[in-house]
Design goal:
With 322 residues, the chain is mainly alpha-helical. It has a domain at 36-141 and 167-273. It has helices spanning 2-10, 20-27, 32-56, 61-73, 76-79, 87-110, 115-122, 125-137, 143-164, 169-192, 199-206, 211-222, 225-228, 230-233, 236-263, 266-269, 275-288, 294-321. α3 packs antiparallel against α15 (236-263) and α9 runs antiparallel to α18. The chain starts with a helix and ends with a helix. Residues 1-27 have low confidence and may be disordered.
């Protein structure tokens, strides 16, 4: 992971040579329609945790993740031209997102970490991404964004304390590593200079670099049996889980999300990801009957207030001054 950060740091000076229009796009406030679209993607990702839970009950988690990125890449790489960017950006994103994020998440679940806690800890990337953006991309936080982030962080901490219980230390370390990897993946999208019109192709081509390492991790941890038993495991539920992870979640969801990251600052986009585990709790309640404690509800309320401050306080103040 430090290699990714060193790579970003070594390229930091390139930002000074960026055209003015590029800088303006990254500092622009997110349009309300784009903000609503980001919330819709967060809801989709929240539902994805329930589909993952259904899938890993039948298929090895690392194998399932490997199949996810195989189908994300194929057949799109045969239909979409490779984006006009260097291979290092595609490889870096594919490894950071496919292996660093989802590989570590699945290993954390295998170590005994509860899925709900894993979902919340992964969204610490909502705070890590803007911080890395300040350090390596020169992004800035407005005062409302700082205030909103502070309130949301209090809510995030409250939910973690209410959800944690007896958690695996190894599992927590793995999923926090996944959160850092997700933040690095977010920054790689921004640093690559990919055009919003090429984001889908970027996602497909970068996914080529994830399956082999994921399958290798599966073989190293469980042996050849996980592959030999795959044909009989891929029933209707497993196939439905895989299809949902590939098409709505990855291809559509990350196409929209990465397009927003290419247009706006990390401080503007990343905090919306805090809604993902909130939607995950909602869908877990609807599908599995999982309940929410009063402390979790209070923390969720603080997160929502923080997001409203971060995204709408400045606009509300401007409207009052007119």
């Amino acid at each position: 992971m430090s290699a990714f950060l060193f790579f970003l740091h070594s390229k930091k000076s390139d930002l000074k040579a960026a055209p003015p229009s590029h800088t303006h796009i990254h500092s622009a406030a997110m349009k309300t329609l784009d903000f609503v679209l980001a919330i819709a993607v967060a809801a989709l990702w929240g539902l994805n945790f329930s589909f993952i839970k259904l899938g890993v009950a039948h298929v090895d988690p690392l194998v399932l993740a490997g199949l996810r990125f195989t189908l994300t890449a194929l057949p799109l790489v045969l239909l979409l031209r490779r984006p006009a960017i260097a291979w290092r950006w595609l490889a870096g994103y594919g490894l950071a997102f496919g292996v660093g994020t989802w590989g570590l998440v699945t290993l954390s679940l295998r170590s005994g970490l509860a899925p709900g806690l894993a979902a919340w800890l992964l969204q610490s990337s909502a705070f890590i991404t803007p911080l890395l953006g300040m350090l390596y991309l020169g992004d800035t936080w407005s005062r409302p964004q700082r205030m909103g982030a502070g309130v949301a962080f209090l809510g995030f901490t409250l939910v973690i304390l209410a959800t944690g219980g007896k958690a695996s230390a190894a599992g927590i370390a793995l999923v926090l590593g996944a959160a850092v990897a997700l933040s690095v993946a977010n920054l790689l999208i921004k640093r690559s200079g990919v055009k919003p019109t090429e984001v889908l192709a970027f996602l497909a081509w970068s996914s080529l670099f994830a399956p082999l390492p994921l399958f290798g991790l599966a073989y190293a941890s469980s042996g050849a049996a996980v592959f030999a038993s795959l044909p009989e495991q891929m029933g209707g539920i497993a196939l439905g889980s895989l299809a949902f992870q590939v098409y709505p979640t990855t291809l559509f969801g990350y196409w929209v999300w990465n397009s927003l990251l290419a247009r706006y600052s990390a401080a503007e986009v990343a905090p919306v990801a805090l809604l993902v585990p909130i939607f995950a709790l909602l869908f877990a309640w609807l599908i599995f009957g999982a309940s929410t404690t009063n402390e979790q509800a209070a923390g969720i309320g603080l997160i929502l207030i923080g997001l409203l401050i971060s995204n709408f306080a400045a606009r509300f103040r401007t409207a009052l001054q007119r």
